[in-house]
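Lecture 7 notes. Example A: sequence first, then its structure tokens.
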Amino acid sequence: MKDVLCLINSIPLPQKSSTQSPERQVLSVPVASSGTKVLLGASLLLSEMDSESDDEYFDAEDGASQVPRGAPGSEPRKAAEVPNEALVNLLLKFEVKEVILEFTKQQKEEDTILVFNVTQLGTEATVRTFDLTVVSYLKKISLDYHEIQGSRKKPLHLISSSDKPGSDLLKVEYIKADKSGPSFQTTFEKTEQTFKVAFSSLNLLLQTQALLSSINYLTTILPSDGQSMGGPPGVQISTEKQTNSSLQKVIVSSKDSDVIGFRLFAKLNAFCVTICNEKSSIAEIRIQGLDSSLSLQSRKQSLFARLENIIVTDVDPKTVHKKAVSIMGNEVFRFNLDLYPDATEGDSYTDMSKVDGVVSLNVGCIQIVYLHKFLVSLLNFLNNFQTAKEALSAATAQAAEKAATSVKDLAQRSLRFSVSINLKAPVIVIPQSSVSSNAVVVDLGLIRVQNQFSLVSGEGSVNPPVIDRMDVQLTDLKLSRTVIQPGTSQPDIQLLHPINFEFFVNRNLAANWYHKIPVVEIKGHFDTMNVCLNQEDLNVLFRILSENLGETPEELDKVKPRVPETGEIKDAPEISTSQRLQASKDASRAEREEIRSVNIVNVLLNFEIKEVMVMLMKKAEKSGRPVHELSVLQLGVEARVQAYAVTAEAYLQQVSMRCLDFTDAEGGPLHIVRSSRVTKEPLLKMALTTADSDGPEFKTVHDNTKQRLKVSFSSLDILLHLEALLSLMDFLSSAAPSSESSSRKESELKPLVGESRSIAIKAVSGTISKEDMFDLKVTAELDAINVVVCDQKCSTADVKIHGMDASVSVKPKQTDMFARLQNIIVTNVDLKSIHKKAVSILGEEVFRFQMTLALENFALSEL
């Protein structure tokens, strides 16, 4: 096989010349494909008819030439009367009953590895006076793997299809109609070219060892890059130009606006994928009812797609949650895209009601059951194919490079797409474990997206910048706890009251040349979030963390890719992959150099939650009774993403926690935690800055620091009330899971923690950087904390901590730490005592601490 492929690749392909001599020009004929081009050469009638244009009858063939108007013998034919009847000029039927391709490996004796079988592959073509119809079909296809025997000692069927009588696995139909034909407007519905693809049903078996062995076998028979240099360099360029030219001819429709130049219909009935390893099955994926269509006209181009159903089943016999992904509505999604070429050209560019395209998307409700054990099994299956992942990464990097080049070459004119999206957001079910019926349900509600356009005034440009203002609304987001029992419906216990959320997105459609406003600006807020939790609710949440997220398959898949024998390992594909990755990096680096001097704001984010209210309820006989109430006011995030720096700031204005079982001196609920309201400064403020060392402002603005974190804490009052603390501890202890599951979880995590620590030490020791560059700077400031210790009868002590500063700066070979406490006072509040200050400071500060570590010496001592 390897020698045959090398021989095929060594055959030089002829180059197509741009001009052809008159002696080589032949009459153009209607053709459907390269396989039927010769057989259809007898019919010359269609190519001699007059029409609105002198284009070829089949646009996708770039190599055929037209008949010159002055060619000998053309005048008598033109003088003849054009026929009005649709006569059959050619009828073709061809079928191959069966094709069997067997792949073997020569060892002590010839062993069969793969057997590829194709049944009933045929073509039917009909050429008439005004139309051409070609139908190709494939009855059945199969791929068997023989090294591993399945059930009943038969080979594994990696690919199989239905052998139901009268059904074809694949059917492709192509119709070409002449606009001057008598049935063009009725039978062919004003459509010049129609392409139909129907796919019935296909089953795939993804078995780990069989796939690895098959990939390894097919890789060894493929010729290396050095052995495939058959054709001259110009062949690939010529082919690419020919493909682009052909594509342009298909897309360009007729000049008549009501004539459809091209139509595509594709339908997939069913597609099933079974994932398994050597010991057990993992998942089964079924996709049903995928329909799509494409229509190309001169003034409108439309695309439609629809998916009826998708089901992902966990086939583990022990789990009670079989359907990992299922559909709760009638369909998965319905997508429509309409493009209007040249709709915003000229004077229409400033008319904001004119758009280049309209996008409509409706998504049904998808239910997702999250089981960590099932997810780990799928990820473990995918991790076996490391080579394929590396090839995919290389292809992705190459595609990203081409996409960046295409975006760079766009004109200054901003394209506008009207968006109307209605999504029934997914419902995520998180069970307590794979064998438990307790679960938490996250209903993401309804998502609606609409947009409108506006111009940026006062720029004086021929094509002013356009802003796309998108309004995104999320309604009825809910969180609840339920008991899943097949056949019965249990009422859900609501944990999070339904909330509505709205944010606005402003997109700069002229971002490739206009940089005075951000590329994307996001502003969002919602008013109140109310959460109610009792002991059972917290118990289920804790058990999800300990059981579901800690659950893994009993025996992890340890199958490794087979190592080829000596002499079979090929280095050429790896070299080419690394070369492509390096080329992509060089191109990305070159583009970054071009925008070095421009400080572009790519993303500007502003998001705020007005209030979060968490109510802890103690379960009673009929209804819950509130015990503790936690309130958080004005929790927000502001972020700015630039070309060479990212800045983010989070703030929390106020926080309070009340115990409703006890009252204070004024008769109100007892405040355990309360932020000070003396100043308007937020209680907590965190600022994070990440800078690129290649940026133009890294030395000046960012002070040679890659990451900088600043935390400031204003003032907080804490009341350590003995009975209230005991009540809170009793509530949390009753909600916490049993100690057995916690200890088991802790024992499982210990090896992972040790492993991560060793990895971190190695990563730090291998870092290479400049000596004057800071990898991290952290500063923390605490203004004041007041702690009052008391019980239900009287107060005991008052502790005040004031003025605490700390900082850490990390360099590649040095770490500096600093901490300082200005004042601490412990007051005895007993009225009978005359010694009020139990602890006080006589000097300027409590302590000052500084330490410098040479990490290079420290790492050597650790090793």
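Example B, a different protein, same format:
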Amino acid sequence: MVGFLVCRGKMASPSKKAKKTSCCNMENIPIITKVFNDPIHGHMELHPLLIEIIDTPQFQRLRLIKQLGGVYSVYPGASHNRFEHSIGVGYLAGKLAEALRSRQPELNINDRDVRCVQIAGLCHDLGHGPFSHLYDGMFLPKALTKKEEEMRRNRKLRKEEKLEEWKHEKGSCDMLDHLLKENNLKPVMEKYGLKPKDVTFIKEMIAGPLQESKSKKWPYKGRPEKKSFLYEIVSNKRNGVDVDKFDYLARDSSYLGIKNNFDFRRFMQFARVCEVDGRKTICTRDKEEGHMYDLFYTRHCLHKRACQHRVSHIIQEMIAEAFLKADGHIQIEGSQGSAGSEGTIGFQGSRGLFTLSTAFKNMEAYTKLTDNVFEEILKSSRPELQEAREILQNIVSRKIYKFVGETKPKTIKDWKNLKLEKNWKKTLAQPLPNEEEDNLKQEDFEIKVIEMDYGMEDKNPVEHMHFYSKYEPDVAKPMSRENASRIGTTIYSEQLIRVFCKKTDEQSVEAARQHFKQWLEKEPNLLGPEGN
């Protein structure tokens, strides 16, 4: 990704008529854009305000975080990072906003709106931790469970109580605030016409409403309800059709070598804002129904073939397990006086030291936490990191947990219940009828429940879209059953239960396979309607 400068001249002094909508009230500000040569989108020209954000340590950190985490351990092409994806999303966000503005001037999309949408796209993934979703999707839940158990033993947490989960969207908003403060960018934003409430608007586009609103009608503060469609560009909570998905489907497919049947450029050509149930929303042409199924099917294929690939998935689980064993032994220095609430893991007084599982509570510490922690553990000689180091050494030596078998059950709603997993492992470890000695223990098994869907659990996301016709471009409706394609699926989600053996010798693995068969015989509810 190579950048070069383009001078767009100086901003002219706005006329009296234009002053109301102009995004900048300063005269003679040179607009020096930068062009990035991207393998996916070609030459991307970005506004200087976006360049100011990109050229900060907090954003440059994304160069050190793999877009697909541990998938790189299986797919040698999956070496791309959150950095280029974020720039791509910022670019596409501006393109979609500009397309709507030129097609429908009556929407009154102004330069401030476009710039905020671009910044939201650019900064939407600032909160990702090491190996992207591995951090907040695998490691932190393990650390949270461990903390809850410890607090219950010490009677600091009741049995029915749970600690609040943390997601990277929250981290993106916190990191954006930190980025703007540390680099003194708020005056720069003001120079280009943005106002204080625009920061709220940007964060709402990333993470949704920042506070619970008493008014159920319109929960956002950054923009009024008449501009509701702007909230669907970066992170669409209505149906998942957004530029974040456009970029990662194109980028991930390219680097993985998996075909992408969805053309986001075609979607932008047909995108139009229509009023639906009293609220303006982004819609597409009725003839594009099949194309929208291509979007969600491609997403499903990427998850099934790459993100949930059985080898890459278990490698990521091993990394998360290593991080858990290293947690508390790796100290990351953060800002002073940010001790957090009671129960903060690893915080040590006023020095501002944080661990792997608490760094997200302090953005100065979190800025230093990247994929490099893998190498830090691997190359360490400290005895307290020995267990974590051995797990990572097994990964780089390809001594990974062995796949035993998988089953497609009927839907298991409470699969996250730890007691259920313990009972499964207990049944799995029961001796075989002809087994002379009990060679396999509960701790020798790893059970993973995989959920795959079209992005809305068991719902059909296309049914949550609205389509307009050639003859009524301002009237949008859901696709009726009569007009919808009759070729398709009626099931939009599935679960897989995969079992792995931590012992890697052939005798143990073969015994584990027999244990797996015995387990399914004792747990027939784990078989699908047609068996497996």
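Note on Example B: Residues 11-27, 338-350 have pLDDT under 50 and may be disordered. The chain has 17 helices and twelve strands.
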